Amino acid sequence: MKILTAEQLSEGDKITIEKQQITSEELMERAATLVFNEINNRLQGAPIPIKIFCGIGNNGGDGLVIARHLIQHGYHVTVYVVNYSDKRSDDFLANYEKLKDVTNDWPQLIKSEDNFPEINIGDFIIDAMFGIGLNRPIEGWVANLVKLINKSQAFILAIDMPSGLFSDKIPAEDAAVIEANFTLSFQAPKLVFFLPDTMDYVGDLQILDIGLDKEFLGKLQSGNHLIGEEEAVSLYKPRKANSHKGDYGHALIVGGSYGKIGSVLLTATAALKTGSGLCSLYIPKCGYHAVQTGLPEAMVVTDVEDDLLSGYPEDFKADVVCFGMGAGTANKTREALKNMLNTVKTPVLIDADGLNILSENKELLDLLPENSVLTPHPGELKRLVGEWKDDFHKLELVRSFSKKYKLIIVIKGAHTFVIDGNDMYVNNSGNPGMATAGSGDVLSGVITSFMGQSYEPVTAAVLGVFLHGRAGDIAAENLGYESVLAGDIAKNIGKAIQGLFSRKLKNSE
Ligand SMILES: NC(=O)C1=CN([C@@H]2O[C@H](COP(=O)(O)OP(=O)(O)OC[C@H]3O[C@@H](n4cnc5c(N)ncnc54)[C@H](OP(=O)(O)O)[C@@H]3O)[C@@H](O)[C@H]2O)[C@@H](O)CC1
Ligand SMILES: Nc1ncnc2c1ncn2[C@@H]1O[C@H](COP(=O)(O)OP(=O)(O)O)[C@@H](O)[C@H]1O
Ligand SMILES: [K+]
């Protein structure tokens, strides 16, 4: 699914109105009715107090339409008009009039703190103050109203955007922004819904297809994509009946040091669980028995050193090499990485200490084969590309880094971002149970495996990140967030892949 900007959506609005020969009021009715349906499906007529805070633009207009439908269906609704301006949009005014047909309770006007209502913990708040039309920070008494709503601990549903959130920039630290429990947004996700700086304002997210013109949306230039199950299905290549292990790649995992052999074991397990035909590890001698016992399916080659890596098996024939987990950053290990980079011809994956060595020895970046994949968490990323001011600045830095070195960067986080030049893929699977030691090592194994199975590196990264998150979701469903171990993510990759496959079958029925 494309991630769009406020400008693109407003343009889509206009084109849809022209092409479908409808009025903007009809489009508002369509969009807000979808919101009403979602609320009605969940509340099922429950007699809870619903307080709708409407702005005076079209986001407020949506709020009035939702109010009308809720009142018609017998809900207990109070409507407030947050009078941050004396202007009114046409569609707001039209729906203000229509509200008269269904209630004698006129909306209450809020013009200052004196008009603030009481908000109770059991209220259901609908935030329809500002949507994609916000063009400056919320200030004065309106900001205080936002803060009052946030403090109330009532359930907050935001319409289109949590009020105070811009679609293309990060609000200041002390800015007034609605902290929604749930956001129902129109037609396409906005990038701020997924950034670490802003995702907490959004709560759970659902995108409503309001029927904007398909041709316009299809042609829109947007290099930003949200990756969910549908996208992952289209990337997955089923295994052929007539095949053998040689068809699924030989992955070589290079890493580990004394006390950190578990990391490579997790990566290799994940690679095999993702379907690698063969998997070998190159590790210091101290890890030999642990790996041979822990993963009998893997082959092991040991370094001359007992406790760390110092070299690279130059004659080794592998389809893909993954370097770095648990490796440490000793001088000898830097030489091992250098040897590897001087030897390999195909794209590699670099993680963890491999990234730390690259950060301290930037000249090595030039040795990386084109389309190699780097998988930093935010700390490792900072060491690679420098400090950033905010998340938009971070994405800019990573884009130019990716273009400069022709690399694919996987920024790990609650929503992992895969950046390949101007293209960006935002992952939408995963859960906080995955914030546990070694889950990144598992991700490296999954992506490496797909790279070795002849997936394009960017596809391997996007599909790998999605399946890793999905496997984490399956593990959490069975175990609860707290009990998910990295190994449980690896164990469930098969089920995550099966999930895609059964969906494919379902679609073809
Ligand atoms: N796109 C779609 O597909 C569809 C969109 N629809 C809906 O329309 C919404 C967009 O509506 P919108 O353009 O009227 O903007 P909205 O967010 O209501 O606010 C604008 C008002 O706020 C003002 N203003 C701005 N910042 C301010 C501030 N800090 N403090 C004070 N005032 C401020 C600004 O006035 P200004 O003073 O800048 O002239 C203006 O009056 C969208 O989010 C969705 O809900 C659906 O109905 C149909 C399909
Ligand atoms: N809250 C979260 N929601 C979704 N995924 C998460 C969350 N926290 C961590 N993850 C995922 O877990 C992995 C953690 O990787 P990393 O920080 O490298 O851990 P480690 O170094 O312990 O292996 C990443 O793939 C990240 O996306
Ligand atoms: K809103």
From TrEMBL:
Q: Return the cofactor note field.
A: Binds 1 potassium ion per subunit.
Residues in domain YjeF N-terminal? 9-218
Among PROSITE patterns, the record links this protein to: YJEF_C_2, YJEF_C_3, YJEF_N
Reactions catalysed: (6S)-NADPHX + ADP = AMP + phosphate + NADPH + H(+); (6R)-NADPHX = (6S)-NADPHX; (6R)-NADHX = (6S)-NADHX; (6S)-NADHX + ADP = AMP + phosphate + NADH + H(+)
Gene3D superfamilies referenced in this protein's UniProt entry, alphabetically:
3.40.1190.20, YjeF N-terminal domain (3.40.50.10260)
Asked whether the UniProt record includes Isomerase among its keywords, one would answer yes
| Domain YjeF C-terminal intervals | 228-500
Name the family: Belongs to the NnrD/CARKD family.
Q: What does this protein do?
A: Catalyzes the dehydration of the S-form of NAD(P)HX at the expense of ADP, which is converted to AMP. Together with NAD(P)HX epimerase, which catalyzes the epimerization of the S- and R-forms, the enzyme allows the repair of both epimers of NAD(P)HX, a damaged form of NAD(P)H that is a result of enzymatic or heat-dependent hydration. Bifunctional enzyme that catalyzes the epimerization of the S- and R-forms of NAD(P)HX and the dehydration of the S-form of NAD(P)HX at the expense of ADP, which is converted to AMP. This allows the repair of both epimers of NAD(P)HX, a damaged form of NAD(P)H that is a result of enzymatic or heat-dependent hydration.
This protein is called Bifunctional NAD(P)H-hydrate repair enzyme
To which species is this protein native?
A: Christiangramia echinicola
